[in-house]
Amino acid sequence: MGRRHRRPERSYRRFAVVAVAVMALASLFGAVALAGPDARSSFGLGTTAAQYPPVPMPALRPLTPTAPVPSAAGITQALSSQLDAPELGEVTGVVMDSAAPRGVKPIWERDGNRGMVPGSTTKLLTAAAALLSLNPTDRLATRVVPGPTPDSVVLVGSGDPSLTALPDGQDGLYPEPARIADLAEQVKKAVGRPITTVYTDASLWKGPAESPGWGPTDVADGYVAPMSALMLDGGRTDPLQQDGPRSTDPAAAAGRALARALGASDVREGVAAANAPVLGSVSSPPVASLIEYMLTASDNVTAEAMARQVAVSKDAEASFDGASKAVTEALVQAGYDVSGLRLADGSGLSRDNLIPARLLGAVLASAAAQSDSPTDVQFLRPILTGLPVAGGGGTLADRFGDPRTVAGRGVVRAKTGTLSGASSLAGVVTDVDGRLLVFALLSNGTSPADARPALDRIAATLSRCGCRG
């Protein structure tokens, strides 16, 4: 596989504008909200990246619910030469019809049951397990309770990665974050006397702070933080930088922030007393919002936090092992075939993960399945709304600019995955007939610099192919 290297999958916070505009089309059909190929110009995606000439775009038109379904032979004919490209190394994949009943075989597949190193497309399974196990409107509450002495308090972590010391009116990377300032104000009113010591309780999570499958520099390079149930801004020292320096002790950093806000001078580790009264509490964004951010920005800390939250919901140990087992159990309970699945973390940073393309496709197909009525509850929909948009936002903002891939801009929405020697792309695409297709592609054994453009070309080919031959 070569020397380990993971290219940062950067966040672009303006993705929400594109996502909201695309989702508005859902009311037309009661189906998944995605635009047809001609929607690109409507969303400001009518041209390629600045270094390429503009591409003419027709007028806006929505998805076509009666569009013909591609055939296996047609897809094979369209993709055969691309799949054999040496840039892809070993490649597996599936293409599925989003409107097909659950359990129906993919329209097309290549070794779809074979486990491959997935990279960050692992987050799709973490997202699905979280949405299947938790209420999407649930929030994670960070609490302060009395300490062992009258002049002390305990800051109790809930696994909320959004907690921030930024002042009101200043936003970091997370939507609607919980704030230390609000927590401190509540505590001051509840206690009514000076606080000298803040204890930090991060005991909700267990086990090692780093997965043994992570690279030796993943934390140092800013891709992830040491995992702690108590942290600020996902453990970042700069709350505005997606992949930047991380604290070596996130819980202590959070404790120091609360101590400053309370005028306390001492920060220590501790454990809150059972059933202690709550002096203050602040809540994370809803689970659904955290998942959307996790997918769009490919945020590793949020993914690990969500996996552990699945474990907590199942009364399992909130560790790497416990969370991996809990995510797998949630998928099994929901009826997914997990043959060939091996999970070692929730983010996909671990090289010990193995995921079959068919499982990724099945989860995405559930998220994209047509609604029978506008009032249907679609628990997995945040997976779709969180997918990066080709050429528009998230980790696909600066991809699909090549003339060979530009057809996918605005109509491909997909989760990316990148590790040394492993690349993946899994999401949804609308073909030229207006049919919404699900795809999952995994490449192992070549450089991501070579594999990622080749994967983009396959997705773009699906966008411009009726594939009925």
Fold and architecture overview:
This protein is of the alpha+beta class and 469 residues long. It contains 11 helices and 12 strands. The protein has helices spanning 15-23, 72-83, 122-133, 180-191, 250-262, 287-297, 300-313, 320-333, 357-368, 381-386, 448-463; strands spanning 90-97, 108-110, 115-116, 141-146, 152-156, 197-201, 266-269, 280-283, 355-356, 412-419, 422-430, 436-444. The strands form 3 sheets. A 5-stranded antiparallel beta sheet has the order 2-1-12-11-10, sandwiched between helices. It has a 5-stranded mixed beta sheet with strand order 7-6-5-4-8. A two-stranded antiparallel sheet has the order 3-9. A hairpin with a 5-residue loop joins strand 4 and strand 5 (152-156). Helix 6 packs antiparallel against helix 7 (300-313) and helix 7 (300-313) crosses helix 8. The longest helix has 16 residues, at 448-463. It is elongated and about 75 Å long. The chain starts with 14 loop residues before the first helix and ends in a 6-residue tail after the last helix. The model is unreliable at 1-50 and 52-60 (pLDDT under 50).
